[in-house]
Amino acid sequence: RWQKIFMIPLWSKMAVFWNKMFLTIIVLLIVLFLDAVREVKKYSAIHVNEKAANVNTNAFDHIQMKLFRSQRNLYLSGFSLFLWLVLRRTVTLLTQLAKGMASHAALETQVNDATEAAKKYMAENERLQE
């Protein structure tokens, strides 16, 4: 039943579109990840000594807020990139498994037909020998 549904020509046209969208999303996630790495390095490099922190606490808090946001963006983009790649690999493996199961079922029916034909010919051969 599922094979009939997925053999509709519309799916093959959509597959090309979604492969392009997948690559676009991967590139976007990589760019976001690299930007987050750059931001984390930028705000981690800023060290405010205690004297300057006591003078202007708002500046220190502002830098810490920006560091927190850049770290948050790094974790979100990195984890999203990782999960997106895992999802893609899972879909690829499921597709290969479905193709393998379909070819296995076709080979099984072909073997059963060949076995039945061989039994029929053997029975006919025995009958002719008698």
UniProtKB/TrEMBL annotation:
The keyword Transmembrane helix belongs to this UniProt entry's keyword annotation: yes
An annotated GO cellular component: endoplasmic reticulum membrane
Transmembrane spans: 74-91
Domain of life from the UniProt record: Eukaryota
Keywords: Endoplasmic reticulum, ER-Golgi transport, Membrane, Protein transport, Receptor, Transmembrane, Transmembrane helix, Transport
Bilayer topology term: Multi-pass membrane protein
Principal place of residence: endoplasmic reticulum
Subcellular location: Endoplasmic reticulum membrane; Membrane
Domain BAP29/BAP31 transmembrane: from-to ranges: 1-106
InterPro entries: BAP29/BAP31, BAP29/BAP31_N
GO biological process terms held by the UniProt record: endoplasmic reticulum to Golgi vesicle-mediated transport; intracellular protein transport; protein localization to endoplasmic reticulum exit site
The keyword Transmembrane helix appears for this protein: yes
Assigned protein family: Belongs to the BCAP29/BCAP31 family.
Matching PANTHER family: B-CELL RECEPTOR-ASSOCIATED PROTEIN 29, BCR-ASSOCIATED PROTEIN, BAP
Job of this protein: May play a role in anterograde transport of membrane proteins from the endoplasmic reticulum to the Golgi.
Protein name according to UniProt: Endoplasmic reticulum transmembrane protein
Organism for this UniProt entry: Eudyptula minor (Little blue penguin)
